[in-house]
Specification:
The protein is mainly alpha-helical. The chain contains five helices and five strands, in the order αββαβααββα. It has one domain: Four Helix Bundle (Hemerythrin (Met), subunit A), CATH 1.20.120.450. Helices cover 64% and strands 8% of the residues. The chain starts with a helix and ends with a helix.
């Protein structure tokens, strides 16, 4: 994995955060069934409860088995947008810092088994995280387009 992937993870996060903050000026803003606080809390929880422990398990040589991760049914009502974004930022920076300490074998040779994606390395899990960011970014871009009409 090149540093480009880590840079892409930081950039995509910054874009999602910027879109959330801009769209938050409209209290009725939603992407599907989720309001912006829910999206921010979902992203923070996914990073904390899915990506970090799974990347650590793979890099630790545990060859873990992963099911699909979802926190869609979680009640995020007690969480504030800014707090969720701060947590997501801190957790993403911690994850990237951790990945930078790994050697090439830990990132590309050790694997886990994912229900949907098959054999996954640390690098592959980071690609999954980036795709997740980009999926939310597309929804936020559609929302921004609707709000500016």
């Amino acid at each position: 994995m090149s540093e480009d992937m880590l840079d892409d993870l930081l950039s995509s996060q910054q874009l999602v955060i910027a879109m959330l903050r801009v769209s938050a000026e409209d209290p009725s803003a939603r992407v599907g069934a989720w309001d912006l606080r829910d999206i921010a809390a979902h992203l923070a929880a996914t990073e904390r409860d899915c990506y970090v422990p799974r990347v650590r398990a793979i890099a630790g040589g545990e060859h873990p088995a992963f099911g699909l991760f979802t926190n869609d049914g979680t009640d995020f009502s007690g969480i504030h947008l800014d707090e969720a974004l701060d947590e997501w930022t801190a957790t993403r920076l911690m994850l990237i810092g951790y990945v930078k300490t790994l050697d090439a074998d830990q990132r590309t040779a050790l694997t886990g088994r994912h229900e949907r994606y098959g054999e996954v390395t640390v690098d592959r899990y980071l690609e999954i995280a980036l795709a997740h960011d980009r999926d939310h970014l597309r929804g936020l871009e559609r929302l921004a387009g609707e709000l500016t009409r």
